[in-house]
Sequence to fold (295 residues):
Amino acid sequence: MKIIDIIHTVGASFSCEIFPPKSYMNIDKTKAVAKSICDLGSDFVSVTYGAGGGTSQQTVEIARYINQLGGTALAHLTCASSSREEVKQAIARLKDYGIQNVLALRGDIPAELRDKPRDYTYAGELITEIRAQGDFCIGDACYPEGHVECESMEQDLNHLKAKVECGVDFLTTQMFFDNTAFYSFMFRALKKGIDVPIIAGIMPMTNSAQIRRSCELSGATLPTRFRRIADRFGDDPEAMKQAGIAYATEQIIDLIANGVKGIHLYTMNKPDVAAAIMSNLSYIVGADRAGLRHD
Ligand code: FAD
Fold:
């Protein structure tokens, strides 16, 4: 099933992200994670693409497995370190494996390629190629606090609009910890004429090392309220996990109450964290979907 059809049918969609193993030898472990997450009733499950394309085979293999389980897979694909021929082959493989949904990304540019000529500069070029090669549902990334490389939010939104016009069906945000950043971004995006559904990316922060690393990489701001929680409970793994789940739950309740189109959980291959959040939200998601039926 195409994800855009799910988004248009279910009210706020609920999805999870997993990452493939670096080595094909460990694929069964990740398949077990994928199964646990599918069993939770996630509307779709996305599978990341390792930086540099090293996990390409594992990504499509796990995406196909999710579809075989009766779930809906979203396979990520990046282009920054690939040639046109490699990308063409990757798109052909997605088709061969029956994968209809692709998250088309540029990816981070590896340091050794930064000053060299590359076949791809921006994600828009990849989106155009995927569109030309098949009937895919294409998702893409957006950044409520601006992409780290961009000089201004305004410029980032102009680039985002151009990218969407290449043929994007829906967007998923980078993680954020302050919902007001998301609402402000939604307002500005709509003002620019970006009218595809935007899914909110939520990262349940369950350990302090992960908090530091994620914020450094993404440029996401940690609100004081969350910083206090991390300072107080960061050294106690169980307490931090409980607090991180509670914080993410609260963020999601607020987003659903304000009419968000979808929630995407950056689950970091932890089905227990996803299960705890989904259990916290069972009546809320139910009420949201019942409300949609009554509209
Ligand atoms: P782009 O949309 O190309 O944007 C990159 C930068 O270029 C931005 O600053 C933008 O403003 C600018 N730009 C875009 N178009 C133009 C233009 N036409 N002219 C001038 N400037 C332009 N990385 C992985 O390696 N694997 C994954 O699986 C993965 N999954 C992700 C999932 C989500 C939901 C998100 C939010 C990110 C993910 N990433 C992943 C990280 C992502 O690849 C990086 O953030 C990367 O630096 C940018 O990729 P992009 O597709 O957003 O790039």
In short: The mean pLDDT is 94.
